[in-house]
Amino acid sequence: MMKKDLLCINDLSPSEIEAIFKLAEELKAKRQAGIYETPLQGKTLAIIFNKPSTRSRISFEVGMYQLGGQAIFLNSRDIQLGRGESLADTARVLSRYVEGLLIRTFHQAEVEELAKEAAIPVINGLTDLLHPCQILSDMFTLKEKRGSLAGLKIAYIGDGNNMANSWMWGAAKTGLELALGTPPDYAPDADILSAATHEAEKNGGRIELFSDIYQAVRDADAIYTDVWASMGQEEETKQRLSDFAGYQVDQQLLRSAAQQVLIMHCLPAHRGEEITAEVLDGPHSIIFDQVENRLHINKAILMHYLG
Ligand code: CP
Ligand code: NVA
Question: Which fold has domain 9-130+294-306?
Answer without folding.
Answer: Rossmann fold (3.40.50)
